[in-house]
Amino acid sequence: MSPRTSLLLFWSLFVLGSAPAQAAYTWIPSAPPQEIEARLARVQADAGAHKAAIAAGKRAAFFCVNCHGETGVSALDNMPNLAGQNAFYLLTQIDKFGDGRRKDAFMSGLVKVLKPDDRFNIAVFYASQPVPPTPAKNPVQAAAAGKHFARACLGCHGVKAYGTREVARLAGQRSAYLIATLKNYRSGSGLRSDSRMTGVAQKLSDAEIVALAAYLGALP
Q1: Domain ends where: 64, 97, 127?
Q2: What is the DSSP string of 91-140?
Q3: Residue 190 belongs to what domain range?
Q4: What does the pLDDT profile of the chain (220 residues) look like in tens digits?
Q5: Could you tell me if 96 and 179 are in contact, meaning their C-beta atoms sit under 8 angstroms apart?
Q6: Distance of CA 39 to CAs 36, 46, 53, 56, Å?
Q7: Handedness of CA 86, 98, 70, 40 (dihedral sign)
Q8: What count of other Cβ atoms lies within 10 Å of the Cβ of residue 147?
């Protein structure tokens, strides 16, 4: 049994152990985007509130450690780093798993038991954590991929690939995860759905995807 399966089984038994517990975990959507942005601005401007949100987020994210690491830096190349992502972006992705806009039975099963405040604090926690670059196994290949990044990614993800409130940070991301994600966009499998990304990925060859993933993973 894989670690992901074991964790999901444990969490399911915990949540479904009693009727009252099951009823308590009805999915509650997050606040509207403008309210989330205003709350993030308040929390990030107040050192005490920011510290409290980080601590609460770390506690709420205890079941994420097995795949995403203690601070959102994954030890597994096929699992994404969450550290360093924009908090608004992270919260949006968490909500997409919860309401079905992103398809992953494992992630959806875990996310659905989180209350809005938990999801908010988890996003703040991971956003506050540093993400180290992963040295490329083939530095020459990675360096050459800079032209692919400039052509295909820079316009949305930024010069440093740090992303925005609506676009993922790619700098320091796990290469196997990036490769799988780009190929999912390219294939139109439905696992990831974004017309912009599909259009970009369809113009990349397998070799370009591998090189691009190595280049992005090595960015600080």
Answers
A1: 127
A2: HHHHHHHHHTSS--HHHHHHHTT--HHHHHHHHHHHHTS-------SSHH
A3: 139-217
A4: 555 554 554 444 444 444 444 445 689 999 999 999 999 999 999 999 999 999 999 999 999 999 999 999 998 999 999 999 999 999 999 999 999 988 888 999 889 999 999 999 999 999 999 999 998 888 888 888 999 999 999 999 999 999 999 999 999 999 999 999 999 999 987 767 788 999 999 999 999 999 999 999 999 9
A5: no
A6: 5, 11, 11, 15
A7: positive
A8: 13
Q: Is residue 56 part of a domain?
A: yes
Tell me the residue type at 12: S
Residues 144 and 122 in one domain: no
SS (H, E, C) 138-178: CHHHHHHCHHHHHHHCHHHHCCCCCCCCCCCCCCCCCHHHH
Torsion sign over Cα 216, 41, 38, 124: positive
- Residue 133, in any domain of the structure: no
